[in-house]
Structure formats: C-alpha cells, structure tokens
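Task: complex structure prediction.
Instruction: return structure tokens for all chains below.
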Amino acid sequence: MYGGLKVLSSYHRKGGVGKTFLASTIAYLLAVGGPDKKGKKRKVLVLDYDSQQDSSKAFIQMQAIPGDDEYAAPIHPEFGQIDDDEWTGYNTSTDILFDLPTYDYPTAFDNIKLLPSEGNVDRVLALTSDPNELVTKITIHMTDWFNLPDLREDYDIIIIDNPPSKSPISSGILAAATHVLIPTEAEYDSVDGAPMLLNRIKIINEIRQKDPLQVLGIIPNKIPTPSRMTQKDKVALTKLYDKNGATAEHMSRFFISKRDCYRVMERPSIDPSHFDYVHNHHAIEEMTNLYNLVETKLWGNPDE
Ligand SMILES: Nc1ncnc2c1ncn2[C@@H]1O[C@H](COP(=O)(O)OP(=O)(O)O)[C@@H](O)[C@H]1O
Ligand SMILES: [Mg+2]
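Output:
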C-alpha cells in the first residue's frame, strides 16, 4: 500500500486521552531516531486535523487571528519561489480534500514537515450534499493523495492528528491509513471506547483483506504513579488487559505516566528541546518504550 509509505492515525473518539501528545511525540521520536538519537532518522509529515491546533502550534509559528480563538496558517516561506498560479501561499491539511495545491511547511525540526490544522473543519461538509457519502468521499480523496509518487519519495511516514470526538474526517482517514495507534486513559469512557474502535477497524478490514489496517497498539496514557493510582484506575486497567476481553491482544506492555514534563503541547513557544526529557530518566524510559514499539512495528526489528 502506498509503495511502503506508512500512514499512522492517532485515534480515539474520546478527547483528552493523548492523541495529539502521542502524534507529536512520535513524529519527534521517529525524526530524531529515538530518545538516544541513535536510530534511523525518519522523514515525517504531520497532518493536523485537530481543531485545537496544538500539534500545528508545536511545530510552526501559527498566526493569531484578532478576536478569534483559532489560529491561521502562516504564509509559506517558499511562496514567491514556487511557480504555481493556483497556490495562495497558505495551506492547511483540509486543502488535500479539495485537490488544492498543497506545499508542506518546514518546521523547527529537520525531518518534520507539517500541514497545519485550519481549526474548525466544517469546510469538509461542502465535499458532498449527501452526508452518508462524506466519510467515503474523504477516504477516497486521502487514498488518492497518499498514493502520489512524490509523497513516498519525500517521506517515510505520515502521522495524522485527529479531531476530538466523532468526526467524518477521523473516520474517513482511518479507512485510508495503514496503521492506527490508540491512546487511552484509565477511565471508564475511554476504556469502553476501545472495543468499539476495534470493531470499526474489523469492518474496515473486511474490504481491505490484502492490506489490513494494523493496530500498533493501545497505549494507556496519563496513568497516575502507583502511589496515586485509585481503585477505579486499577479496575479500568484490569479491564483493558483482561485476557478474555477484546483489547488484551493490542495492549502495550508499558504505560505512559501522567507527568508535567509531557505537557509539551501547553507550552507557548516552539522549541525542539520540549520533547527532550534529558532531565527525567523515567520519562526517557517511557519514551524509549514508545519509540521501540512504533519503530519495530512499522519497520521491523533490525536485530531480528
Ligand atoms: N502523559 C501525560 N501527562 C501529562 N499530561 C498529558 C499527558 N498526555 C496528555 N497530556 C495533557 O492532557 C491534555 C490532553 O491531551 P491531548 O494530547 O491534547 O489529547 P487529545 O488530543 O486526545 O484530545 C493536554 O493538555 C496534554 O498536554
Ligand atoms: Mg487532540
């Protein structure tokens, strides 16, 4: 599928579970070759469709819109140098769905490029007058775009940051992705949402028998340290790992804890060191686990 180009969706219906945190963190980890920077440096394109625009803001300088809480994409640094009459010089990830010229933005990180989120993505509703067709339309547009030969030359992986809640964009792109990563909190709603999502993936794979959408893993995120773990947290985690349940086979062997140093998306400036937790060996250990899981499941273990 897509000539080896990977398309990873960070997905969950629930907001606040860490889709954006994991999408941005994985983009960083793959681009630099892991926390110790010794692995292969992957070329990464981030497609931000999250209305909160946090991954866009982590990677490029978005433009505040006066009187609005949304941000606009900045003018592209290469506008004026690229000869394309149809191009306005601004791009968002939604432009892909309208077959507009899309030039990805360079970011503060060498190997990461970005198409930022335009915030509210209601523009997609204009794709079709039949709401029942919308998800399929989005899947077709995205599949065509991921199939562009230039894309696989420029990138090893495309990482999708999805909008919170149920959105035709998330559903449409999921069916076009090659892999999905599911962050979950140890909390009733998000634990309950995971089997539903696995069911959706099963349905998608009924028509993708040759190239099934693969689950990289369900990763418990924002897990309190053992001393702060409540009985409720424990019950939720036990349910996820229950051998007779639907989720057990996809559960990661590690958790990502709730740590202040991980609140990178809440920091206002763009700083490549934000994702570098050099001062915290617990965080480095978790990031190493995350990196190894993603790198190995996507490209195989070089030691094998
Ligand atoms: N492991 C973590 N530790 C501490 N804060 C976290 C962690 N993961 C996410 N957060 C914070 O929780 C909030 C929601 O995370 P986010 O990645 O935006 O979730 P989603 O994209 O699923 O809505 C953000 O403010 C983020 O900084
Ligand atoms: Mg998000």
